[in-house]
Design brief:
The complex is a heterodimer of chains A (143) and B (287). Helices cover 38% and strands 16% of the residues of chain A. Chain A is globular, with a radius of gyration of 15 Å. Chain A has one domain: Rossmann fold (3-Layer(aba) Sandwich), CATH 3.40.50. Chain A contains four helices and four strands, in the order βαβαβαβα. Chain A has a four-stranded parallel sheet, sandwiched between helices. Chain B folds into two domains: 140 residues, no CATH class; 122 residues, no CATH class. Chain B is built from ten helices and seven strands. Chain B is globular. In chain B, 40% of the residues are buried. The chains are: A alpha/beta (143), B alpha/beta (287). Chains A and B meet through helix 2 and helix 3 of A and helix 5, helix 6, helix 8 and helix 10 of B.
């Protein structure tokens, strides 16, 4: 790792769906499961609500990584929101990589309201992955 | 070849206007300085203004939609005739699918396209073009050219893919730096028809008015993503860009992925919904 980045703590923005993943994050807390404090959670109604615009904006405003999490496919509160999100972000990964934002900085995952352990694991994995990639400094506002 | 097509278009235009089948012909004309520009012909006597050659690169479907919008409050929507190359007709297919125009409103004067010229030779994307005759038309002018079609090897996309992410970022930073935010790419694009573009939205202000690389990159990346599964690769954006930014490269990357993931090519059958407007429950996508 770059010695300059020794004390680098990644900033990760997490878009969590209200019905599963946000409740899952709650479960992590109430179960007293430790997870990295690097994630900043934004609650959204559904993973299908997460416009790719939000992800790009997060990267532009200083996020080093982005997590989009929703209900497992088939469990969407609204029926099919996460199916749409799945297609959207399957495409977004390779496209962001194409413009220079490493695919590893964006993670899409499914966390149910009962999966407190899983949420902690997803956040820990993403945090380590982004730590390896280093700070994101391209295409940002105000340097 | 071009002469033949031009004559064919003029004959058709006279015919259509004289019997009153359409109210307007959308085609090309030559300006006083000799450059081609879009033309709107309402009168039979003006049909001689219409020109066609291999430099008529405008995608005229853009104007079609504007006309429909303008006349929305009238009793009957006007019927228009439009000169369309194969790529233009694919764009029309997208517009029809998205409910922007109806097939009945448009009389398509299809052009069997020999490809657009770029300086000396046929443009690269035209050499790759598989359909030299539009997928549908009401009248066809010209003979389908028999030139050999190059296979699309996605070499331009692959070249960038072979770089490291850092190199790609440097490449795009350098390209976007030239952007003057004139939005000509958006105006020329038949798929870009939002009433309020995200680049000009004031509340919330997604893209600031600053003239910095982040704003330019944000606009171009989001515009390309909005065209995911909808871009028909007419390359009107490239043609419109005064700074020669390879904008269609972004669209081509998405088109490549869309084809690989969903087996979909934009502008084909209007009955098949675009990939991001639909889903399959059992699909296994790389996340």
């Amino acid at each position: 790792m770059d010695p300059m980045n020794e004390n680098f703590e990644p900033k990760i923005v997490g878009f969590l769906c209200n019905w599963c993943s946000y409740a899952g994050a709650d479960m992590t807390g109430t179960s007293r499961i430790p997870y990295p404090p690097n994630i900043r959670i934004i609650r959204v109604p559904c993973s299908g609500r997460v416009d790719p615009l939000y992800v790009l904006k997060a990267f532009q405003e200083g996020a080093d990584g982005v997590l989009v999490a929703g209900c497992h496919p088939g469990d969407c509160h609204y029926g099919d929101g996460n199916y749409h999100a799945r297609r959207r972000y399957a495409l977004m990964h390779s496209f962001l990589d194409f413009v220079g934002i490493e695919a590893g900085r964006l993670r899409i995952d499914w966390v149910s309201a009962a999966e407190g352990h899983r949420f902690a694991q997803v956040v820990a994995e993403l945090t380590e992955q982004v730590r390896e990639l280093g700070p994101w400094t391209g295409l940002q506002n105000g340097g | 070849m071009s002469q033949e097509i031009q004559e064919g278009i003029r004959v058709r235009a006279r015919e259509l206007l004289s019997v009153g089948e359409v109210s307007c012909i959308i085609g090309h004309e030559r300006s006083a300085k000799g450059r081609v520009r879009p033309a709107f012909v309402y009168d039979e006597a003006d049909a001689g203004r219409l020109v066609w050659d291999q430099t008529c690169h405008h995608n005229l479907m853009v104007y079609l939609r504007d006309r429909v919008l303008l006349s929305r409050r009238q009793d009957a929507p006007p019927r228009m005739a439009v000169v369309a190359r194969p790529c233009d007709v694919r764009a029309l297919n997208v517009l029809i699918h998205e409910g922007q125009v109806t097939r009945e409103q448009v009389f398509v004067i299809g052009v069997a396209c020999p490809g657009m010229l770029d300086g000396e030779g046929i443009q690269e994307h035209c050499q790759r073009c598989k359909e030299r005759v539009p997928v549908f038309y009401d009248a066809l002018v010209g003979e389908p050219p028999r030139g050999k079609v190059q296979d699309d090897t996605w070499a331009d996309v692959a070249e960038l893919e072979s770089m490291t992410p850092g190199e790609r970022l440097a490449f795009w930073t350098q390209e976007f730096e030239r952007c003057i935010r004139c939005y000509a790419c958006r105006q020329a694009c038949p798929g870009c028809y939002c009433f309020e573009c995200l680049a000009e939205q004031v509340d919330p202000p997604w893209v600031s008015i600053a003239h910095g690389i982040p704003e330019k990159a944000f606009f171009h990346v989001m515009r390309a993503y909005h065209l995911a599964g909808r871009c028909v690769e007419c390359h009107a954006c490239d043609q419109a860009c005064p700074m020669h930014i390879p904008l269609s490269l972004l669209n081509r990357k998405i088109a490549k992925e869309v084809e690989a993931l969903f087996g979909y090519v934009a502008g084909g059958d209007p009955e098949i919904p675009p990939p991001l407007a639909t889903f399959r429950k059992d699909e296994d996508l790389p996340l």
